[in-house]
Amino acid sequence: MALKLEVEHLHKQFGDLPVLQDINLSIDSGAFISVVGPSGCGKTTFLRIVAGLEPATSGALRIDGKPLAGPGGNRGFVFQNDSLLPWRTVLANALIGPEVAGRVGEKERKRTLDLLRLVGLGGFEHYFPRQLSGGMRQRVNLARALAIDPEVLLMDEPFAALDAQTREIMQTELLRIWEQGRKTVLFVTHQIDEAVFLSDRVLVFARRPGRLQESVEIALPRPRELSIKRTPEFIAYVDHIWKLIEHDVRLAVIEEHV
């Protein structure tokens, strides 16, 4: 399988504060990769660097062998908060990416309507954000990222604000959508079970400065149903990853409350 994303000796500092230290990894085209770790370990900063929204202090990043230089249409970003424009309809919100790129014609409009159907929002294209539930708003957020047809989809805790039941449904929906398009996905989450359920591989970051502690291959069969979360194999993966970060998580929680 061809390499899609390469990261070599990535470092990031904010002033005197080291945030990421010597991150090295390779991600295959079409892979679903999650990043977990304690609060403050640089997960979101790492995602923002890959997106081109934040410069690295040093190191190299490449997509398809080409160096990354700032934001680009080959990457789509799904934020934790949907940040939909309240005065625009579902369709108009989803079309923002193509609009910015200067290519909104009948072809883009039809493709975006197809994407809204893909994410389960067929028939809602003329609704406004205030008329949607939290889960539906995140579906618009996902369709908006997919509308630019990115090669790499970057997702920063996109389901964090949802209730537990909606979150589980959105996990299965995301896998359904991913199976159809097989975009390369880099997914940041605090939820270990979410990472294991979704991913081919889970990158476990250590406490600040963020370092890649372990890359855990998830050898669970696909397609996956929610029932797989109750199997011994799934629970073993979750336990293994939790043991890797438990000490760092405890320290991070203590720091937050001092």
Walk me through the topology.
Layout: E1 3-14, E2 17-28, E3 32-36, H1 43-51, E4 58-63, E5 66-67, E6 75-78, H2 90-94, H3 96-100, H4 106-118, H5 134-146, E7 152-156, H6 164-181, E8 184-188, H7 192-198, E9 201-206, E10 211-217, H8 232-256
Parallel strand pairs: 3-8, 3-9, 6-7, 7-8
Antiparallel strand pairs: 1-2, 1-4, 4-5, 9-10
Helix pairs in contact: 4-5, 7-8
Can you put this structure into words, describing what you see?
The chain is α/β, with parallel strands linked by helices and 258 residues long. It has a domain at 1-73 and 201-258: Rossmann fold (3-Layer(aba) Sandwich). 37% of the residues lie in helices and 25% in strands. It contains eight helices and ten strands. The protein has helices at 43-51, 90-94, 96-100, 106-118, 134-146, 164-181, 192-198, 232-256, and strands spanning 3-14, 17-28, 32-36, 58-63, 66-67, 75-78, 152-156, 184-188, 201-206, 211-217. The strands form two sheets. The protein has a six-stranded mixed sheet with strand order 6-7-8-3-9-10, with helices on both faces. A four-stranded antiparallel sheet has the order 2-1-4-5, covered by helices on one side. β9 (201-206) and β10 form a beta hairpin. It is globular and about 50 Å long.
